[in-house]
Amino acid sequence: MRLKIASAVLAMTLAAGTQVNAETLKFAFQGTYNQLDPYNLNETFSLSMHGNVYEGLVRRSADLKIEPALATRWEVIEPTRWRFHLRKDVKFHNGNDFNADDVIFSADRVRAEGSDLTVVLGAGVKVEKVDDYTVDFILPAVNPILHSEWENWFIMDKEWTEANDAVKVTSASDTNPNYASLHTNGTGPFKIVMHEPGVKTTFTMNNGWWDKKEHNLTDVEFTPIGSDATRVAALLSGELDMAYPIPVQDIKRVDSNIGTSVMTGPELRTIFLGFDQKRDELAYSNIKGRNPFKDVRVRKAFYQAIDIDAIKAKIMRGLSEPTALMISPFLFANSGDFSRYPYDPAAAKALLAEAGYADGFEVTMDCPNDRYVNDEAICQATAAFLARVGIRINLNAEPKAKYFAKVLASGGFDTSFYMLGWTPASFDSYNVLKTLNNCRDDKGVGSPFNLGGYCNPKVDELTRLVLSENDEEKRNGLISQAYAILNNDVSHIPLHQQSLAWGVSDKVTLKQSADNKFFFKYVVKN
Amino acid sequence: MFGFITRRIAMALVVMFVVALISFLLFRFVGDPVNQMVGIETTPEQREALRQRLGLNDPVLTQFLRYVLGAIRFDFGNSYQFKQPVADLIGRRLPATLELSFASAVFALLLGVPMGVYTGLNRDAWLSKLLLSVSLAGISLPTFFIGILFIFFFSVTLQWLPSFGRGEVVTLGSFWDTGFLTISGLKAIILPAITLGLYQMTLIMRLIRAEMLEVMRTDHIRFARARGLPNRSVYYIHALKNTMVPVITITGLQLGSIIAFAIITETVFQWPGMGILFLHAVQNVDIPIMAAYLLLTAFIFVCINLIVDILYVVIDPRLRTERSRT
Q1: Cα separation, A510 vs B74, whole angstroms
Q2: Predicted complex: ipTM over 0.90
């Protein structure tokens, strides 16, 4: 130990003396960084890694505020015309200049066939070059949240992409991998020097980055480690500087170890339960000829039968925030106005009796077992709580690959009672209302992730108003009205926001943001 | 001999065809690949279009024929997750798995054989009893548990050996990454190789012990002694050689399973080999990788069986004469 301290001191003096600082950050994540094309997959971890290499016109700060990036400023010159002023003297990693042509090119490419990020920019939006460093976006209708997902819309170099024949977004059905899915050329603070998917990815600092650098890293080494025990062990043994996620049951272990600690914080994702309210007879229940979930009293009884505080204390080890809304309180200003229905098994029993199910009934619950933090355990607890009010749950917990194939639109919404987690990609309530709570048809058109088919035309109407309202206060009022209806109708049972848990060595400081994205530009290693 | 080998190869082709067919039918039950390939916000129409482009809407028989036709030309398609040709991906991962299997087989043989001979000859020595009871642990504890124990002891507590990965690798030729030429690579292989080889070592030791006990009672050993041969030559030339036939069979088959089923060890140690590639493929319904991996596994088993059959003939003269008679 003494030797270690001595060498550390020596290293520090050397570093201070010569100013040569080769710091390598080594970190691990549970999943793999599959491919490098920034438009191929709309998934948090890939986008987070791309975000160290590529940049968008705007970016989010660590507290998720939109701030200028490749655009220095923007203004809404007409209600449907937004003007973006681009940053000058920005160079891509290969030395090419960044300008308006790259933005227009990226706007076309992100909406082309094969792109999984078409949502960031509506198909009807026209992009016009005013001059080399000014671009106009002409919208088909007013949209106050036009740029809300643009931190995920990374600008690519037109010349580079064309020269390497990578204009078409690689689709999985292509026979040849696209150049852009194996190589990168962004404007961001790091470049990728080696990428072996599923094995290791190495980043190195971009000396020519336009922004002031906060980090002191020269290199970053990423390894995917799927096994929880190994990832934790590698952090404890000092082989890693950072590892995430840390399973809730290991947090104490990491905290009590000298030299490591866990950074926790609320995540944006909301975990909730939903009911099939569309079919006239439930697909998986002993009640025939009718659908008990069409009755709001039954839904409310389920809600009140679940002891959310026990789930928080026993299953989530305190690392969850029970919620009354289907959106994180960070993302909605008025969320303080709402509260959960209290846990009350007696009231739940009374509601069931009132609805004509005094003896309860039987229903199958679909649940993923490798998607959310302790997902299966939460479902088991839910089944136990519901058993106390006479509801017999057959739990069907499956790996996510099978689970989503069954319950999503592609599986025909084949579920009666399910668990799902949702983060609105735009960080805005409109997304929650539109994708989870509007009326839909049997194919999912109208509200693709409203798996249970909850439908209230008043909510649809409010959703439309929310979309076109530019005044923030009025808009929040409309959203509140919609959430109040959802609460009254018990459209879903919101459970909680789970927590982030990043294991961090004492040698590094970094910033954690609630969207679970890891940016190297905040890392200082000493 | 030639006829024997051609017959075996014909059988091998049938086996591989059947493996391909069965695995292809099973893939229909692992889940929907499209859900793993797109973000959750992708609309149902876009998902349907992707499914169409991938040919997942075609009848299973069409998909299977397309696959077999590709496989004959060594074209296993593109990985759904990585968007790269499967043959490349597996080729790049193969060295890691083969080196790990080789190291663990060497470990198992180098320790298992002498331990087996010793315990077979000195049945009542305290060391024999110790080895036997320790080896019981090796055979009864699950691999992932041993691996995690090793990690916590040697990596976290003592900090002697790395807990994951392969260390530094050196590329030989154009495609073979070896970890045998660097210090960190050698350190990295120790724990996974022992974890993977422990079961085999125990098996070999117990097998040789049982065979030794048997052989030592036979007449030819008694005659060897009567001829006044030194103990060493009786034990290691006359006795051990006669225990080898079952040992080679078992070791051969076990080598196949070491290569094919290093999955658990690779997962625990994040060893970047084929096993972990396969496991990820299962989790993400990456059908092209799964199919190619299962075919490769079948191929490895078939090859090893063939080699074992040939080795029999080399080692056991009795089989040679029988064959030449028929």
Answers
A1: 47
A2: no
